Amino acid sequence: MNISLLTNYNNIDKLVWSDFVLNHPNGNIFQTPEMFDLYQITPNSEPFIFVALLNNTEIVGVLLAIVHKEFKGLLGNLTSRSIIIGGPLVADNNPEVALALMKTYNSTIKSKAIYSQIRNVFDVSYLKNVFQKLNYVYEDHLDIHVDLTKSEEELWNSISSKKRNKIRKAERESVQVREVESFEDKQAVYQILKDVYKRAKLPLASKELFDNAFDLFTRKKMIRIYGAYFGDILIGTRIVLLYKDIAYDWYAGSFSTYYHKNPNDILPWKIFLNEKLKGMRLFDFGGAGKPGVPYGVRDYKKQFGGELVCYGRYELIHNRFIYSVVSRLFKLFRKLI
Predict the structure, then answer these.
(1) Do residue 44 and residue 100 come from a single domain?
(2) What is the pLDDT of residues 99-118, one digit of tens each?
């Protein structure tokens, strides 16, 4: 098999790349040209694309990775990590193509990131030998899927009784869920997320990421921004990415002062109904932590009746010394803030 690799974004036919992802059985938004474009204009992020060609003509594999940094300059280099979500995508699950992609990826990224993490959004068991050959370490990691092909009654009955009561309470309190459209409310969305991540003592992506996503993805009809409103006040939000017939839960949160209005309970339910109405087959609720390890986010999401799936993650540390030092500093940082 004559496989060649393209790594220069400007040399890749974006329409052919887009068609490959669209027609791949596991094609997802995280491997699209639009995702590359988003991170290309976002500070402290750098996208890398690897495209495998058969006989220098036909695309048979795609791998999009994003190198994230928390800071600029030297400190940024010390916090750099490369994240691959939903990739690589390989025609006919060909391990030879996958190996060629991953080898080129490793040689490119090892000097640009402390570690690489592959977050699987579909079953990649056919790639197990490829990853192991390249010294990637597998770790179980859970996700939650909600089947939107079920009837509204089935979806409602699969939600825990406690959660259904909170949804009813939010409705009695006149909390309404609708799409966020005004510029002012889109700015408020980031303030909500900022508040949530500060309380969780976690770093949040830059405001530019969200501004760019709201602009680029809205034009492409690849995003919906939902808000929970109490009167005219935006008290909670959920950002959903859209691709083919799957809605991906991206970022979410609510102002803690309005928790008693249950925005975090009514939002998912109303989103299920709206996305179902718009023809979506699946709501990907996102990460649910490691099996057997207590995780409040998983407990919360499970109450909405989805199915736990375990596609896992693969990780490769490129610089073990810096990785160890930065990991310790991050734990100290969380204790201090």
Answers:
(1) yes
(2) 999 999 999 999 999 999 99
